[in-house]
Amino acid sequence: MTQLMTEDGIRCDGRRVDQLRNISIKVGVLKNADGSAYIEFGKNKILAGVFGPRDVHPKHMANQDTGILRCRYHMSPFSVTERKNPAPSRREIEISKVLKEALQPALILKDFPRTVIDVFVEVLQADGGSRCAALDAAAVALADAGIPMRDLVSACAAGKVADRIVLDVNNEEDQEGQADMPVAIMPNIGKVTLMQLDGILTPDEYKTCLQTAIGGCRTVYEVQRRALVEKYFESGEQ
Amino acid sequence: MESAILDQLKLDKILDLLKQGKRLDGRALDEQRPLTIETGVIPKANGSARVKFGDTEVITGVKVQPDKPFPDLGDKGILICTAEILPLADPYVEPGPPTEDVIELARVVDRGIRETEMIDLHQLVLIEDKSVVGIFIDSSVIDSAGNLFDACSYASVAAVLSSTIPKYEIKDEAPVLVEGVTSKPPVKTLPVSVTMARIGDYIIVDPSKEEEACMDARITITTNSAGNICALQKGGDDGFSVEQLVKCSELALSVGTKIRKKFEQLM
Q1: Cα B26 to the chain's mean position, in Å?
Q2: Contacts of B62 (CB under 8 A, 6+ apart)
Q3: How many angstroms away from the CA of B196 is the closest CA of chain A?
Q4: How far apart are CA B170 and CA B130, in angstroms?
Q5: A103: nearest CA in chain B?
Q6: pLDDT in tens, B1-32
Q7: CA-to-CA distance for B233 and A198, rounded, in angstroms?
Q8: What homologous superfamily is domain A23-232 in, according to CATH?
Q9: Are A91 and B107 a contacting pair at CB < 8 A?
Q10: Nearest to residue A194, comparing CAs of B233, B100, B199, B249?
């Protein structure tokens, strides 16, 4: 087993317990998509493309009263150490569902009855915390598509490693650590829209872990905002 | 879950009642429906349980058989937990490949049992890296009336507690069943899953089918015997405030204590 943390609290990738991995986001990276974004979150490399609001196919899925949101999270076969079968796994189907439910509160789908907004996320390289990074890219891609939103959605995980609560769990820490808690919030509204946990936490650690993750989400939000400003206000005007 | 078609009148009624601290079926906001657990219902399985949780009904069977370990987990036995909503359980369920709701159901039930480390998988190794015992916990929802997460989880835990593990010996590097010798499963802790729904500003425990049809968001929290929080899944098309999430964790612990007592009687 690799050592996950030194005695002075330095993690296996050299970070402090409260430090995020490097994040960079590029907006509008795809020509055909109505909105798109590319995120590098540590070693995660993820593309998100958004289409819509557009006609629903198959037609029976259309809703007279509201638009619908569909989300597909997919990992490329070459994104992980052992080749991943390209067919969607049960894990990917579950993540697609929780991503959809994390993004939906930010959208005003009632304004677009009988339409669908499709969000496609492709994980080109995965490195722990890919669902959070995917969500960060997807939220920016939705904004890039010009879809009215109540707020952005910002996601980041926290966890427990070597008995300490740490921000932004990486792949090794996820595999061998004690707990992993991905969280997404709408930062200006203050609502948690994605939350999962596996691992063992005391009630106090649970609260600390949640607050730590939310702190990370707020930092991510600044990166998302800057990426959007960069594309739409290049000349410095705001 | 596939929502029941809820007429507007019923939705208004549910919201009206919540304002008075009441629910459609007369329960308190933090009150679960009655739970009955019957074990040993499928003698051909190594363990089984039939759980009635309100009008929701689940049958779970445990099968134990030798297997090869997962490549990077050669020092652990195999644990696989599935869940299925049978077409006879709900007019809106059709035969065919599992929908994302059903996949989520199975994975949340699995996560609760796996992450609490209910079963000591290290005790299920026959030859390290080569041969282990696998425990397969399969749940079938036979009547669907809301909160399938907890119903399947309770049935799974009860089925494991009632199970007997056959003994295997290694002969010529292959596992051979030793007739007539069984042991209790190596259980370390009792996971209890508690599902809550948010409707408006109200948090209710164990939503019924009608309540699920009009809830804003859902959360399932699994705790262990030591009072820790071990698995969690938020669902539904809206979110929770941080205060609500803390309240939900406290509810999961307090409600969980009562269910855990029922499990203890099965041991």
Answers
A1: 25
A2: B45, B46, B47, B48, B135, B136, B137, B138, B159, B160, B163
A3: 14
A4: 11
A5: B237
A6: 444 455 678 888 999 999 999 999 999 999 99
A7: 9
A8: GHMP Kinase, N-terminal domain (3.30.230.70)
A9: yes
A10: B233
For residue A199, which residues of chain B lie inside 8 Å, CB to CB?
115, 230
**CATH domain B8-266 topology:** Ribosomal Protein S5; domain 2 (3.30.230)
Q: Which of residues 176-235 of A touch B (CB under 8 A)?
A: 181, 185-186, 190-203, 206-207, 210-211, 214
CA–chain centroid gap for A123, Å, is: 11
Average the pLDDT over A16-44 and give the result. Answer: 96
Residues within 8 A of A (CB atoms), B 1-60 only? none
Residue type at position B169 = E
- Closest partner residue to B241 (CB to CB) among A93, A191, A211 is A191
Parse chain B into domains and list their residue ranges: 8-266
Structure tokens at B20: 């008075």
Is the CB of residue B241 less than 8 Å away from at least one CB of chain A?
yes
Question: A182-226, pLDDT tens digit by residue?
Answer: 999 999 999 999 999 999 999 999 999 999 999 999 999 999 999
Token output for A148: 């009215």
The structure tokens listed for B242 are 């941080």
Angle, helices B148-161 vs B242-266, to 10°: value is 30
The reported pLDDT for the residue numbered B1 is 40
